[in-house]
Amino acid sequence: xxxxxxxxxxxxxxxxxxxxxxxxxxxxxxxxxxxxxxxxxxxxxxxxxxxxxxxxxxxxxxxxxxxxxxxxxxxxxxxxxxxxxxxxxxxxxxxxxxxxxxxxxxxxxxxxxxxxxxxxxxxxxxxxxxxxxxxxxxxxxxxxxxxxxxxxxxxxxxxxxxxxxxxxxxxxxxxxxxxxxxxxxxxxxxxxxxxxxxxxxxxxxxxxxxxxxxxxxxxxxxxxxxxxxxxxxxxxxxxxxxxxxxxxxxxxxxxxxxxxxxxxxxxxxxxxxxxxxxxxxxxxxxxxxxxxxxxx
Length: 296
Ligand SMILES: Cc1cc2nc3c(=O)[nH]c(=O)nc-3n(C[C@H](O)[C@H](O)[C@H](O)COP(=O)(O)OP(=O)(O)OC[C@H]3O[C@@H](n4cnc5c(N)ncnc54)[C@H](O)[C@@H]3O)c2cc1C
What we know:
This protein is α+β, with helices and mostly antiparallel strands and 296 residues long. The chain has three domains: 3-79, Uridine Diphospho-n-acetylenolpyruvylglucosamine Reductase, domain 2 (2-Layer Sandwich), CATH 3.30.43; 88-209, Uridine Diphospho-n-acetylenolpyruvylglucosamine Reductase, domain 3 (2-Layer Sandwich); 212-295, UDP-N-acetylenolpyruvoylglucosamine reductase, C-terminal domain (Uridine Diphospho-n-acetylenolpyruvylglucosamine Reductase, domain 1, Alpha-Beta Complex), CATH 3.90.78.10. It is built from seven helices and 19 strands. It has helices spanning 3-8, 40-53, 103-112, 128-133, 193-210, 232-238, 267-285, and strands at residues 14-18, 30-35, 57-60, 66-67, 73-79, 88-91, 94-98, 115-116, 147-153, 159-163, 169-170, 173-174, 180-187, 189-190, 218-220, 245-246, 249-251, 258-261, 294-295. The strands form six sheets. The chain has a five-stranded antiparallel β-sheet. Strands 1-2-5-3 form a four-stranded mixed β-sheet, covered by helices on one side. Strand 16 and strand 17 (249-251) form a beta hairpin. The radius of gyration is 20 Å and the shape is globular. The protein starts with a helix and ends with a strand. It binds flavin-adenine dinucleotide. Flavin-adenine dinucleotide binds next to strand 3, helix 4, strand 13 and strand 15. Flavin-adenine dinucleotide (FAD) is lined by residues 24, 58-66, 80, 99, 124-127, 129-131, 133-134, 136-138, 172, 180-181, 211-213, 218-220, 294.
């Protein structure tokens, strides 16, 4: 059935593309089919074809929240960050972006234009679409609260606009998580750009000191909201697992909710380390750590 993809999009579809070079962990198997559409129209046509032919597909942003298993991914992986034009437009106190715009670009543009709200999110890797998909944020704020409208593709490839009032956001969750997000419009409050830039800089320094940001080969693992009220890293530290290593996967010294992959690391090492941390934390505290990282 998927061979339709090869006939209809012969210039676009690659088979057996290694996903390691498209994800932060830089490991894992191949995508059965892989595409880097160069226009939004082609992207929508691909979605229509997948819907019509019942072809399973996944959307890939910057790959900072995905671990690909060694077996790879069946179906089509559509990468939005290699070649699709980025759109970003500031109008008064609103900013319109396409979903493939890096979150950091949205944050710095807002700050430069004296639009406050997102500056705490500086340095969080990834694209705006994925940020809305998972309502990413910090302890004090998240992206969802600034959404005005979202443009989403329906399964048949047609596009619809939805108002923020129709979307439910919770901690690292949004009702958009089953939607394909094409773009969004955000509304911010006006503030002094110099003060915003100073606040952003402070957040950046704190984040850089506490997270493995320079590290390609790192991932944030667990949801921070736990039954005990402690963060995932506090729980991991409390049970004495903060310097644990399995094969080439090790808990990050700077922040125990991150795993660092050494050059010899495999996806199985990471999965085994995740399981070990979950078992130990559960055994000693009764708390079940839930994954924030997506396993493909
Ligand atoms: C060093 C580091 C620090 C981090 N710090 C934080 C933090 O402070 N706070 C936080 O919340 N997260 C943090 N994260 C997690 C990560 O940055 C976010 O989850 C980010 O939103 C992932 O974006 P991405 O483009 O890389 O998505 P990907 O990893 O490519 O994809 C993640 C998910 O989003 C989906 N997706 C991507 N684009 C779209 C789209 N247009 N429409 C629908 N679905 C889509 C994918 O299908 C997938 O399910 C951190 C990660 C790392 C590695």
